[in-house]
Amino acid sequence: MNETIQIGDLGVLVTRKAIKNVHLSVHPPDGRVTLAAPSATRLDVARAYAISRLAWIRQQQEKLRTQARETPRQFIERESHVLWGRRHLLSVAYRDAKPCVSLDHKRILLTVRPGSDAVKRAEVLHEWHKGLLHDVVPPLIRKWEIRLNVSVANYFLQRMKTKWGSCNHGAGHIRLNTELVKKPKDLLEYVVVHELAHLLEPTHNERFIAILQDHYPTWREARAELNELPLGAEVWKE
To answer: Helix 54-65 crosses helix 43-52 at what angle (to 10 degrees)?
Structure first.
């Protein structure tokens, strides 16, 4: 059962699990706070622990607030767009033909029909992003299915408001945030490994950490780098 404790203006979601130690987390992009505690932990004990770490929580939330955020994109000529961790200039052409996107050295060439507005231009680019991910995700999944001895029934790409990925342990499905196309490919691989590890262990307990540590020893560095990169332009709300 999940419960929320209130410490002044701070809400902390408390989840009790079959784990040995307390895990306190501050989640990007909005600084949401969760506390996972052993099953028998009393709520007042969880509250006391959260209060003892209040300074650390505030520090992490401040880091997220001051983190670089992309300015809203208008999808216009010579606008800067990030792809696999590198900046590219956008070139927009209007042609009475099927919309398409291509990459020419450091330029992203976006072709749309005359009269296409920013929403349509964004939609065309997003579909292209999904295509790029569909090219690289399946080989990564196959690679880590073998290493972790797991099987992914299916994967999905979608815009996700608060997570880089998710895993449905029972169905064997994983979901990946399409924003990952903007991050270096090694960070995409970290997210794939993270979600596939959940097929072995659905919670973030000691066993899950051990799996990551054993198979992807640099996971902490990858997680830190991913969470320090610029956030999307939209201010996510849950």
So the answer is: 60
Residues in the chain: 238
Angle between the 185-197 and 118-148 helix axes, to the nearest 10 degrees?
Answer: 60
**Alpha helix (H) residue ranges in the chain:** 43-52, 54-65, 118-148, 185-197, 206-215, 219-228
26 touches 62 (CB < 8 A)? no
List residues bridging with 107 in a β-sheet. 89, 104
Find out whether 87 and 102 touch, Cβ atoms under 8 Å: no
Q: 231: which DSSP letter?
A: B
Q: Give residue-wise pLDDT tens across range 175-195.
A: 999 999 999 999 999 999 999
Cβ-based neighbours of 206, under 8 Å, separated by 6 or more: 19, 20, 21
Q: How many CA atoms lie within 13 A of 92 on its CB side?
A: 21
**pTM exceeds 0.85:** no
- The token pair at 50 is 């959260």
Tell me if 174 sits within 8 A of 195, measured CB to CB.
yes
